[in-house]
């Protein structure tokens, strides 16, 4: 489905999804060239407010025992630089705008966006159940010399209700390689994945998989309101889940259709 997530979600019936697995555009890091795109707001408060509007609708369309798995990365203040050039390794980093340093922060500050969003969702009624560290062993190199290179992002587990569906057996892990199964820990070491034709950050399927396996059963419906290249759909097909994906940019929706083998 092509369109703004908050508007498209309003057209869907309540309570039809068992879980939502998604990664919205990060604030101030990409320019998708579309008016009113989430992530291009002039300030953090507007970004968070726009995400809250989307996830209120997500909560409405989730079943009462449903969960939300939300991947977000952090960023630093721009130091009031107004644009950013591309490079050969990462052409998607080019931007025609850069948001100003938020009030109360200084140039070079780490903003803490994932936790700001998580706390806002918690205040809005979601149950914040877990923070997962996505450790990226093959993280992108950085030229910085005054801080460590970032090699992680967050995946937050939220629930709509106090009691919710969570299949811990489906995502158990080996303990120290000895074959003994244990409850999944909160640090997941998963390499990033490139997808041919996608000049933007893509969800690794191995990051999506445990979220879907723990948060749904076969034939359940899964939602991704920021569908991108369609990784959530691909994992759902593999594990016999139904799904709905919403994507703002027509070119990315076409890429997802090709990936999933759908006709335009």
Question: Could you characterize the architecture of this molecule?
Answer:
By secondary structure, the protein is an alpha/beta fold. It has a single domain, classed as Vaccinia Virus protein VP39 (Rossmann fold, 3-Layer(aba) Sandwich). It has helices at residues 5-9, 44-61, 113-123, 205-215, 231-238, 250-260; strands at 17-22, 62-72, 127-135, 152-159, 173-174, 181-182, 187-189, 221-224, 242-245. It has a 7-stranded mixed beta sheet. A two-stranded antiparallel sheet has the order 5-6. Strand 8, helix 5 (231-238) and strand 9 (242-245) form a beta-alpha-beta unit. Helix 2 (44-61) packs across helix 3 (113-123) and helix 4 crosses helix 5. The N and C termini lie close together (12 Å). The model has no long low-confidence stretch (mean pLDDT 89).
Brief sketch in words of this structure:
This protein is 24% helix and 19% strand.
